[in-house]
Amino acid sequence: MTDPRPLTLAGRRYDSRLLVGTGKYRDFAETRAAIDASGAQIVTVALRRTNLGQLPGEPNLLDVLPPDQFTLLPNTAGCYTADDAVQTCRLARELLDGHKLVKLEVLGDAQTLYPDMTATLAAAETLIKDGFDVMVYCSDDPILCKRLETMGCVAVMPLAAPIGSGLGIQNRYNILTIIENATVPIIVDAGVGTASDAAIAMELGCDGVLMNTAIAEAKQPVLMASAMRKAIEAGREAFLAGRMPRRRYASASSPLDGIAT
After folding, report:
1. Mean pLDDT across the stretch 70-98?
2. Are 164 and 193 in contact (CB under 8 A)?
3. What mean pLDDT is predicted for residues 51-67?
4. pTM for this structure?
5. HSE-up of 230 (CA within 13 Å, CB side)?
6. CA 15 vs CA 6, 48, 171, 178: distances in Å
7. Identified catalytic residue from 103, 129, 146, 230
8. What 3-state class would DSSP assign to 177?
9. Which residues, 6+ apart, have CB-to-CB distance to 182 below 8 Å?
10. pLDDT at 4
């Protein structure tokens, strides 16, 4: 099947619409096994929690996930101010030889991990002016999502539910509104708990789904990664196929014309 709208980010086309994180696994070996099973081509890395070379002598994630095999997506997880987020992205660019694609998130508080949208907008503006290709984690507010797009973000990433909650898509009508008004990729970020959640996001018309906890905290992370891969593919195909209309009453599967009476 040829997809009429392949996933394209910062001018590069990707076959997989599943983006995955690298945190919360038992070790780097499990991280690599799960990512291989997921089929993901884009792997997000929390620079404040992962060694990409800034800590000499410690295990380096780049030895397990080399940049020539994956698109690394440095993120600003753990940043609570615009300045901290900007500085983290600049450090990532230095460590990764001029890498420009980043995932911006500026958190509002430690309990909910909801984004501070005022700080997010400020950081996005600074990073875009500084030459970064910004994928931005944000609330599910359609107005703010459109503003981030207009500002120049290469992808907008509204939450489906709080980070790490596993609650699934709690805001599907907001997500649908965001998709309908977007001209850049919309990627659900945060809240997915299992394969059906990922499929629903794709059936709504999302361009992709980013997840970490749903895979890493599964009883069998590698098996869950494989399930998520299939769910993303099935959800995308269902969206392209176009679902039947919902009806209040039954509709016969077989035609009634020609039935003997």
Report:
1. 94
2. no
3. 80
4. 0.92
5. 9
6. 7, 29, 27, 23
7. 103
8. helix
9. 145, 146, 149, 156
10. 82
